[in-house]
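During the no-cost extension, the postdoctoral fellow (Dr. R.K.) reprocessed legacy sequence entries with the updated structure-token encoder. One reprocessed record is reproduced below for audit purposes.
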Amino acid sequence: MDPKALLSQVAIVLIRPKIPENIGAAARIAWNMGITRLILVRDDVPEREPMAKMATHKAAHLIDNLEVFQNLDEALAEFSLIIGTTARRGRQRLVEKSPRELVDTLLPLLASNKVAILFGPEDTGLTNEDMKYCHMASAIPTADFSSINLAQAVAIHCYELYYGVLHARKKPEHLPQLATSHELESMYDYLDGTLSSFQFLEETNRSYWMTNIRHFFSRIRLTSKDANIVRTVCKKLLLYQQAHKR
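Re-encoded structure tokens follow.
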């Protein structure tokens, strides 16, 4: 695939941004770096003029064609690789890569998989609930002051991706398509229900175990077939349990 086709696999996803001008600035930098999809997760769509002004005439069409969703689950349904950008750290968070390291990981997978790069609100960033959908995390290395605004963070990630695709030393491999977020979330629902039915999960430890299970499967990178196998095993276990309760 040529660079244009590879970059068409990528979408920038802005979650609950507060400043319309940042949406326009994100559109401008995305278009400059060959990325043509901009997704907005927000209850409403901001006024067009402030967004279009920052996008400039060249990228105004991205503003006019914004893909808008009210919840993240629906916004990510078709994507097989989801990256959360964050400056926050914690034991329950994914291990971060720099944007450049991230691109090295993504390049072999781009030809076969749609990629979403998530950016949180300007004041708080991505929440743990947002991050649960992510397979990888990206953090921009800084000296001492780690506060980078939304448009700057989008610019750095888009540039690294564009540069990496443009200067790739070898052709991307045509690896199998990975399971989509929709398929994985269905699998996690079955896992949650099955583990709860066997009393492995309780309200006091549910979040801890499900977060670690998600991280485990993210490292493995399941295909659609893999996710379906896990769902089927869960269904069989639930049927077996129900049959032996009678």
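The chain has a mean pLDDT of 89. Residues 181-245 form a domain with the Helicase, Ruva Protein; domain 3 fold (CATH 1.10.8.590). The remaining legacy entries will be reprocessed before the final report is submitted.
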